[in-house]
Each structure stands twice: as C-alpha cells, then as structure tokens.
Amino acid sequence: MEQRPDVRPGRALRRRTGSSQREAVFHRDLALKGQYKTMEVKGKQTIGDKEAYLVEATPEIGSPDKMYFEVATGLMIRVDTERSSPQGVVNIETSMKDYRMSMESRYRSCSSR
Predict the structure, then answer these.
(1) Which of 8, 70, 71, 86 could potentially form a cystine with 51 if both were Cys, beta carbons 3.0 to 4.6 Å apart?
(2) Range of the domain at 103
(3) What DSSP assignment string belongs to 15-67?
C-alpha cells in the first residue's frame, strides 16, 4: 500500500517559516502582538499628507516589518517589508487607503509596490 504525504492544512502551515506563516493568518491585523517578538514605536513620520507613528515589528524569524499608523485615526496606512526571493531580497511597500464603514467596523483597500 502506497503511503501518501500528510497534506492536512495544519501541517502545511507548521512547515512555513517567517513571513509566509504571518501572512497566512486570516485576520492578521487583529493579532499583531502574537505574530511578532517585539513591537517598538520609533517615532512619527509623514506618509503622503498624513502624520503617522512608525512601529518596528520584529518577528522571531526574518527581518523587521515597519508599520505606519495614522496619528489622527490609529488606522494602519502602510507596511514596509523585506522578503527573500530567487532574485535576492525584495522590498515590498503595502499602502492601505480608502477605509470605509461597514456594519459598524472599518475595512480598507490595499495596494502593493
């Protein structure tokens, strides 16, 4: 009888490392504290026309992510990350904008560069 590899979703998630494991969390923005070893406010910066707090989030594995939260609303407006690829390290900037109210909660649209 042929043995098949264990393909249960939980097993695949445990094999992932670093950033791919953090990105696999469905509501990752609601559970930031559990995904990073440390989170430290580094100061304020201007992102576009908005003033934002810069938070450096350091995971157990991998390089730190830089998260920007708008001072006026507390909403995340940008995340800067580094990812490894076959071509080397790639810098990814994800901007969040166009927050809208829906059933008493806010959601956003995102764009990456």
Answers:
(1) 71
(2) 9-112
(3) H--HHHHHHT-TTGGG-HHHH-SEEEEEEEEEETTEEEEEEEEE-SSSPPEEE
